[in-house]
Structure prediction request, 186 residues.
Amino acid sequence: MGGEGFTDSCLRVALADDTVLIQVFGLANMFLAPTLQGFVESEMDAGRVNFVIDMKYCQGMDSTFMGTFIGLSGMVKNRFGWLCLVNVSDDNRGLLKMLGVIHLISIRDEPFPVGEGDFTTLHPCSDPLDRQRQIHSAHLVLVEADPGNRLRFGSFIRALEDELSSLPKIIPPKAKPGCGSDGVSE
Prediction:
């Protein structure tokens, strides 16, 4: 199936042997980042630690999604696994370079065949609190990865911290994957 039928951003996920395949469709942004985070964490909890993220149908990325990649890559490495991006466009590669994080992500340059396996579609997170936490976390990762990003995101991070600190302390647990039942469809 090509990316033409996907009008909204989503992830398509499948298991291929011991590797989890994740296809990114549309814009990889702050709405899709919590879905990616929750899915990868749930797969790691199930013992899977090898991930291929196919960017062939990705139309662009925001800083939250890039920070999420960096954070997940580190988590996976800590579990002796790997996370690899494939089919990365020149534009998306340029975005990773711009934030100084391209050296922290494994990118496979050879074409990567993606079959028509048993995919499940995960939709963007609709929970604003989960999204806000993900935005904050991803930007902290970007600043840690490249101190030059502090100039880009420092005041933004402080504003997010102010907002998050003003929220009530009793918060329901985060749903995984896809931020609850609205995140997954078959």
